[in-house]
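Sequence in, structure out. Go.
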Amino acid sequence: MPIRRLLFLFALLYGVPAHAAEPPASTPLRLLVPAYFYPEGKGLDEWKRMARAAKDVPIVAIANPASGPGSRPDASYTAAIDLARSAGVAVIGYVSTRYAKRPETEVRADIDRWLQFYPKIDGFFFDEQTSGKEQVPYYGAIAKYVQSRRTDVGALVVTNPGTVTSQEYLTPWKGIHVSCLYEDHGGLDRYQRPGWTVSVPSAQVAGLVYGEASLARMRENLRLAASKGVGFVYVTDNGGSNPWDRLPTYWELEVAELRRAYPGSTRPGLGTDVPQIHWAYDATQQLAQRGIYTGYADGTFAGKRAFTRLQFGGSIRNMLEQIGTLKTPTPLPSAQQARADVKALEMLMLEFRFEMELHGVSSNRATAGIKSFRKTLGLP
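Output:
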């Protein structure tokens, strides 16, 4: 049975709110904003505009103090990141890779500085990615290092080749979650969708468009993003050597258009903390006791502080990866206990299906995970 139908049935049977059981839009759109404007004066006003929009559409913002984290913490950026995250924006830090020519030691040093200077960031944006598969090990090693340096789950890894790339970069479980396959001033009508992207969630594909002055072209690019499987999009009328140094003049209209035309985009902010009284913590703890951990550095789920929705998505992704390695428990749990465990996982998938997509969990992969879990627990 398809995972969406299965989860819908569980929503009816177990009292999940009706609105949560509605299937998402076929291609919900999110905003990936290169927020390369210094957060003081007019730049701070832009950060505030962006934060206000997070109540209407999911936003991932790329912070870039100095083509990277810089050499020391900047109080203005600390305040801007806090402002954005408190509004539900997920903030990731810019790191250059110079098309795999930058030594991994330098890239790792930037990652470490980001985490030291701005520990609240939600992940990283690795710019200037190569497109050929020869350098997949380089970027895979960087992604693996990110996860080794995080003390919690859900570190989002976004790369930017700016053009169509090899499928191997988005191989399941390899650590890269989103790849920007288009960055240009020509509009997404020039983007040729590679056939292999039909096998990955649209949330793993991004497109950045600049120099589009008219409202009609902005709307057309949003329509093209939805029709071509681009789940993250950003369109601006800005141009020049740095088209990302301000928000578009039609920013509020772009946000309104996304909310109106693609209602599946309207979700709680990715950076929003899930209240610790939420049932998801009990469900996650229940699964941790069964041997499925959520991704803390020590392999446990302590529940000592709130998870963001983005982190819960990463947590479930980690569970599904670990399900494949689980051994059949001895003795087997009772049928009632086993069904309760499966129910807990399915309800988590239902609540955080949107966030799971960002970590590469397609409907097919979720269905396969449920099937494997049932088999492990001795259920038909």
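Check: Residues 1-26 have pLDDT under 50 and may be disordered. The longest strand covers residues 90-96.
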